Amino acid sequence: MIGFRGAVARPRLPLLIAAWCCLALARIAGAVVLRDDLGRSVDVPTPPRRIVSLLPSLTETVCALGACDHLVAVGRFDDWPPSVRALPRVGDLDRVSIERIVALHPDLVLLSNSQRASNRLGELGIPAFAIETDRYQDIARSIHLVGALLGRPRRAAALIARLRTQVRQVSAAAIAARHGASPSVYFEVDPAPYAAGPDSYIGALMTRLGVRNIVPADLGMFPLLNPEFVVRANPDIIVVSRIDAPRLADRPGWADIRAVREHHLCVFPPAVRDTIVRPGPRVADGLRALAACFARYAR
């Protein structure tokens, strides 16, 4: 499995690149043919000069690989790096403007495997490459895939290696700083309340920081919880949005939760929270922000 695993043994990066090249990648007549995460073979000009990216993490990856100047449009919520904020917006996870994309004449559209626009774009002759980005291990995969599509595999490999080192260092320092303390944490992704489970991308960050997620893995990646479940779990720390943090004590029984009673709340500005919830090249920044907050309340 490909990913950033801290102290866990990791596959050798050259072997990963070789495997992908042998199994999925073929260069023909100035193009790259690569199988996307919908199982389709997509033929893309190499290198693509006009790129549309419909997912924030993929947009950040394109820019981290030095191809920001080839972006001609992005998704509704794409805002990093700041230079992409001036680009046209052509959709989000639920709605994509096919007409606006076609008018931009892109030679590559990057999007999530859950976005339904990929087949329609393909029918119109626009290469649309779908990438799964939901899990922690997808960070390395998506960077390698985008690097291959852009004709920049060496830059992708270097970025993966750098992120892996940074994640390992942040994880080790965070665990050492707590001197064995392993606080229980509830990470709220929506006030319904929906929580981040252990198998989600956010849950994987929590695992690497050595904290205990109050949500069991069998509930899924982002389960809808009974509020009473959180009360019974009585977490030491709660990660919550700035809007919902002041209202936690108003929820039935929540005033008695240790994290609420002692105000052990991790509340991040939107720009920082984005580094935590987006599985992309700023993963170490998000991990560092979480680690700093956990350390503050774990003593």
Q: Could you characterize the architecture of this molecule?
A:
By secondary structure, this protein is of the alpha/beta class. The protein is 38% helix and 15% strand. It has eleven helices and twelve strands. Strands 8, 9, 10, 11 and 12 form a five-stranded mixed beta sheet that branches. A four-stranded parallel beta sheet has the order 5-4-6-7, with helices on both faces. Strands 1-2-3 form a three-stranded antiparallel beta sheet. The radius of gyration is 20 Å and the shape is elongated. The two termini are 34 Å apart. The N terminus is likely disordered.
Keywords:
299 residues, alpha/beta, 5-stranded mixed sheet, 4-stranded parallel sheet, 38% helix, 15% strand, disordered N terminus
SSE blueprint:
Elements: H1 13-24, E1 26-28, E2 31-35, E3 41-45, E4 51-53, H2 56-64, E5 71-74, H3 98-103, E6 108-112, H4 117-123, E7 128-131, H5 138-150, H6 153-177, E8 184-190, E9 194-195, H7 201-208, E10 212-213, H8 227-233, E11 237-239, H9 258-261, E12 265-266, H10 270-277, H11 283-297
Parallel strand pairs: 4-5, 4-6, 6-7, 8-10, 8-11, 11-12
Antiparallel strand pairs: 1-2, 2-3, 8-9
Helix pairs in contact: 5-6, 6-11, 10-11
Short description:
By secondary structure, the chain is α/β, with parallel strands linked by helices.
